[in-house]
Design brief:
Blueprint lengths: L4 E2 L2 H23 L4 E7 L3 H16 L3 E7 L5 H13 L5 E4 L9 H7 L11 H9 L12 H14 L6 E5 L6 H10 L3 E5 L6 H5 L4 E4 L17 E4 L3 E4 L5 E4 L4 H4 L5 E2 L7 H19 L8
The structure holds guanine (GUN).
Length: 300
């Protein structure tokens, strides 16, 4: 069988960012308002620092206003909640992103609950989780949807067209990826099964998938012979592993070289889902600013 076609998330994300940038300029012209994104980082986790920096930089590049808040690792919950409330009340802020994970002394669910649902550009507030879980098939996604799952569904729609009737298997059940991806695929009228660490026979479940989305954070966990011939594989994993000469490299949750001759289409790591996350955050921030300005929903 021929090698799988690579799903180029890097190129798709570049196109999405360009469309968002145009949307920002149009919003300024139509309503005189500039989308504002506030990022909040507690502590100095190196990976989180890199992510937050790239989010702020991208917002500025697309013509948005960025507000960067860095708090020390020992920040208390009340102090963080006070900052969130201040950002909720600030009319220049359309989107609030509290980078996860938060230090142990802070109750993450209390913080997510404190974010104004209209400014919740991560889509993690229970109101937005509920909107995603209860929406009728075909209805508009006119509320914030978690960024990585939104990116996965955009790549799938681009790669496959209508998804109705396909069997989608999602491996992973996290709030950030697995659950919201499953909801989005259900909304696209897929038949959805969620597998996880306690599933009895994961390889057999994966072999049923027309669409296989893997988000478990284990390098090369899904093997080639778990994949149905002709399936579309979305690998959400970003794992740093040792490489030659004492260096490291990034790999996904799928054994990529094994999957290549079996799948019909697959996202590489890096360059697949990864670049979509920040692009979708920009998309969510623009949409939040458009809603605040009273403009109708348009897909960008
Ligand atoms: N940490 C890892 N991924 C994410 C994300 O999508 N949003 C937030 N807020 N934190 C994260």
């Amino acid at each position: 069988m021929a090698e799988a076609k690579l799903i180029d998330g890097k190129a798709f994300a570049a196109g999405l960012r360009e469309r968002v940038g145009k949307g920002v300029a149009e919003l300024k012209a139509a309503a005189g308002s500039t989308p504002g994104l506030a990022t909040v980082l507690v502590g100095a986790d190196p990976a989180s620092q890199v992510y937050v920096r790239s989010k702020g930089k991208m917002a500025a590049e697309l013509g948005m206003t960025r507000f960067e808040h860095r708090l020390p690792a020992e920040t208390g919950e009340e102090e963080l909640l006070a900052l969130v409330r201040k950002l909720n009340a600030d009319p220049a802020v359309n989107g609030i992103l509290v980078q996860l994970p938060l230090p142990r002394q802070i109750d993450t669910s209390r913080v997510l609950l404190a974010v104004d649902p209209d400014k919740d550009v991560d889509g993690l507030h229970p109101i937005n989780v509920g909107r995603l879980g209860s929406i009728a098939p075909g209805a508009l996604l006119d509320f914030p949807v978690p960024c990585t799952p939104l990116g996965c569904s955009m790549l799938l729609a681009d790669a496959l067209g209508p998804l109705a009737g396909r069997h989608a298997v999602v491996i992973g059940r996290s709030n950030l990826v697995g659950r919201p991806v499953a909801q989005l695929l259900l909304r696209s009228s897929c038949t959805v099964t969620i597998g996880h660490s306690r599933t009895r026979d994961l390889p057999a479940l994966c072999r049923l998938a027309d669409i296989l989305v893997v988000a478990i954070g284990k390098p090369g966990f899904v093997r080639g012979d778990w994949i149905k011939s002709g399936a579309t594989v979305i690998d959400v994993g970003i794992n740093r592993v040792p490489a030659a000469e004492g260096k490291t490299r990034l790999v996904g949750d799928v054994a990529f070289a094994e999957a290549l001759p079996i799948a019909a289409q697959i996202t590489p790591v890096p360059g697949g889902v990864g670049p979509m996350t920040v692009a979708c955050l920009m998309y969510n921030t623009l949409q939040a600013a458009r809603r605040k300005a009273g403009l109708p929903f348009v897909a960008v």
